[in-house]
Amino acid sequence: MNVEELRDYCLSLKGTTESFPFDEFSLVLKVQGKMFALIPLDNPETQIALKCDPEKAIALREEYSAVVPAWHFNKKHWNTVFIDNRLTRKLICEWIDNSYQLVVAGLPKKLREELQS
After folding, report:
1. Which of 20, 29, 37, 108 to pair with 7, CA 20 to 30 A apart?
2. 57: CATH
3. What is the DSSP-derived secondary structure letter of residue 36?
4. Does pTM top 0.70 for this prediction?
5. Within 10 A of 72 (CB to CB), how many other CB atoms are there?
């Protein structure tokens, strides 16, 4: 997946918006104002930072060398996924979905219900 494919997939998730709050080189994707993904646009390697529960993060890092703790977020909960030919589109989309669902689960009940309807 390239940057545009990552962006398009994230925007296909219900309630997702995008912004450039840090600088013009970082695309932030949010659901109901809460960030679930960050795509650096100025890096030659395609990558995406995603939220992940700590146990799953450890397992991912052990299994895939392309997954590393994100330097710009809490290392227990955020991981950078470097996109390369070893990672399937399905796997990347599953990780994005997981990050999205973790953020949705933390939203107030009314907002969660709006996204699920």
Report:
1. 108
2. 3.90.1150.30
3. E
4. yes
5. 13
Q: Residue 37: which of 76, 91, 88, 92 has the closest Cα? A: 92
102 membership: H or E segment, kind and range = helix 89-105
Q: Count Cβ atoms below 10 Å from residue 76 Cβ, excluding itself.
A: 13
Q: To which residue do tokens 């991912």 refer?
A: 60
Pull the structure tokens for residue 70. Answer: 């994100």
Distance CA 79, CA 69 (A): 4
pLDDT tens by residue, 69-82: 776 555 557 777 77
Please report, in angstroms and rounded to a whole number, the separation of the first and last CA atoms in the chain. Answer: 29
Domains contained in the chain, number:
1
Q: Token pair of 51, please? A: 């939220």
Write out the two tokens for 113: 């219900």
Q: What is the C-alpha separation between 67 and 60, in angstroms, rounded?
A: 7
User: What residues pair up with 13 in beta bridges, in sequence order?
Assistant: none
CA dist., res. 90 & res. 103, Å (int) = 20
Q: What is the pLDDT of residues 17-69, one digit of tens each?
A: 998 766 778 889 999 988 899 888 887 788 888 888 777 777 887 888 777 77
Residue type, 60: L
